[in-house]
Amino acid sequence: MSKIYDVLIIGAGPAGLSAGLYAGRARLSTLIIEKEKDGGQIVLTSEVENYPGCLEGESGPTLVDRMAEQAKHFGTEKVYDEIVEVRLEGKEKVLVGKKGEYVGKTVIIASGATSKPIGCPGEKTFTGKGVSYCATCDAAFFEDFEVFVVGGGDTAVEEALYLTKFARKVSLIHRRNELRAAKSIQDKAFAEPKLNFIWDSVVKEIKGDGIVNSMVLENVKTGELTEVVADEDDGIFGIFVFIGYEPKTKLFEGILNLENGYIVTDENMKTNIDGVFAAGDIRVKSLRQVVTAAADGAIAAVQAEKFIENI
């Protein structure tokens, strides 16, 4: 029979590693199950400045490496496997992976969400080198530069407004001729002198020489292609993509309560199933940042400990 862990954690991003740290430190037998590599979205960030206590020149990967080492120090185990089935009802929770089955008294789901990509050539190549999916993370790197925001919903417009605090010019690229954002947000956007709009357009290709310095736009109505080139003095511009997120919750459809694809929890990270918690970007929340993910993981682990004590 498989070992029965006190805590099973799905995902080794900041939420999962934080949960592993707290659970391990509480002397709970803990296993983190990660599909690919540690870190989640934060590993795409070349420099981290807004995590309390981070080192000078901290990058996403270096921060995650230290988190992983800290969790390991307190006895948390880790396995690399992809969970393909879950059985969460009952006293023992079972996670079925491609490599084996894992049994636990509690489960913390911290598998995160991913930003929807544009899907154009050059996007992956220049992620972290001019292409970003987080204005809060990377806005300061583009102070006094020109940036472009892709999207037209609430998040895209709000982030474009945020970027005007840093960039000298912000242009919002939207495939339609009107925004999808709430009217109150639109009013602020149209009143902002540093914010410009490129309507009926999509990004077809991103180019550069080590860093982004040009992109090709297509007008969806006329098919006309236009190449946008960085100012000669700058040599770079930023592209911030906000066309939505994809929470990794397909496994939990029909099992856990979801809202727009995200797991619904209370403030203690509890889901609708006893002993099952969710933490980080995968749950319904107002701010998706490494600091809030780490906090979620800590809360989930403490609540898992309390749940086990009361079994």
UniProtKB/TrEMBL annotation:
Signal peptide: none annotated. Pfam families: Pyr_redox_2. One of its GO terms (molecular function) is thioredoxin-disulfide reductase (NADPH) activity. Transmembrane segments: none annotated. Binds 1 FAD per subunit. Its EC number is 1.8.1.9. It catalyses: [thioredoxin]-dithiol + NADP(+) = [thioredoxin]-disulfide + NADPH + H(+). One of its GO terms (biological process) is removal of superoxide radicals. Belongs to the class-II pyridine nucleotide-disulfide oxidoreductase family. Homodimer. This is Thioredoxin reductase. It comes from Sedimentibacter hydroxybenzoicus DSM 7310.
